[in-house]
Write a structure and sequence with these properties.
The chain is α/β, with parallel strands linked by helices. The N and C termini lie far apart (94 Å). The strands form two sheets. Strands 3-4-5-6-7-8 form a six-stranded mixed β-sheet, sandwiched between helices. The chain has two domains: 35 residues, no CATH class; 224 residues, Alpha-Beta Complex (2-enoyl-CoA Hydratase, Chain A, domain 1). The longest helix is centred in the middle third of the chain and has 19 residues.
């Protein structure tokens, strides 16, 4: 009666591999997102609104009318190694690797562009270059950009994304806090507008200097903003910290941020502000 028996078939599972670069996991809600769709939404999760970290060039493409920065100024500046810093790797090697990875010479790009038809001097930090840390080059580029804004009376816009001062440059890095603050004071005396935009994260010496000195301070939703980490603050003041006290929302509620602006509204918000301020 073999005709009643079905021959056994060997089922071979064919597991389809999808390229990892096609998908991203949202750090806000855990949703798996298609990279193409995420790029269309300016790297903002459509499910929960989480703002992914993006590069300096991506911000330029979003904000500038032409989509490209006219990087006229100081693009060739390079960090030196005044301390001969070396831990597991020489500082000069870290610089070279960061340049190869991102294609830029340091953690900020500066130049000229137009936003909503108005010419501005724009500085955009890039976290992928050694954590967006502020060294001598970052401070010097911002100083020169602010001085050019005074000379030409073009508004200054800076987008911050940084872990703070660059430890490999020691006191030279910390001196940039005073240098940038002094340059922005000259900008204020000349009544030239300065708009500061805080993204995730903006911390350390950057927060303690030019990032918080804007005539208007905008921030992206959910951005981590602060000087020291929560553990250090808690141990210093010996008090429990309120939940979410270093978020953009908390700082807006307490008057340190003027307005939280989603990424897709940034260009329009800056254009509107410039219309009132210029």
């Amino acid at each position: 009666m073999s005709w009643f028996k079905k021959p056994k078939q060997k089922l071979v599972s064919q597991k389809r591999e999808l390229p990892g670069e096609m998908w991203d996991k949202c750090s806000g809600c855990g949703e798996i997102l298609y990279s193409g769709r995420l790029e269309e939404s300016l790297h903002v999760c459509e499910n929960c609104g989480y703002h992914f970290r993006i590069t300096a060039r991506s911000y330029e493409a979003i904000l500038l009318d032409s989509g490209e920065l006219d990087e006229l100024y100081d693009a060739s500046l390079r960090s030196a190694d005044p301390l001969g810093f070396e831990d597991s790797k020489r500082y000069t090697d870290r610089i070279a690797q960061a340049e190869a990875r991102g294609g830029d010479q340091d953690a900020i790009r500066t130049g000229l562009g137009t936003i909503e038809g108005r010419e501005v001097h724009l500085g955009t930090m890039d976290f992928q270059f050694i954590g967006g840390s502020m060294g001598s080059v970052v401070g010097e580029k911002i100083r020169r950009l602010a001085e050019r804004s005074v000379e030409t009376r073009r508004p200054l816009v800076i987008i911050s994304a940084s872990g703070g001062a660059r430890m490999q440059e020691g006191i030279y890095s910390l001196m940039q806090m005073a240098k940038t603050a002094a340059a922005l004071e000259q900008l204020s005396e000349a009544a030239v507008p300065y708009i500061s935009i805080l993204t995730n994260p903006t911390t350390g010496g950057v927060t303690a200097s030019y990032a918080m000195l804007g005539d208007v301070i905008l921030a992206e939703p959910g951005a981590l903003l602060g000087f020291a980490g929560p553990r250090v603050i808690k141990e210093t003041i010996r008090q429990e910290l309120p939940e979410g006290f270093q978020t953009a929302e908390f700082l807006e509620e307490h008057g340190m941020v003027d307005r939280i602006v989603p990424r897709h509204e940034l260009r329009g918000a800056i254009g509107q502000l410039l219309g009132h301020m210029c």
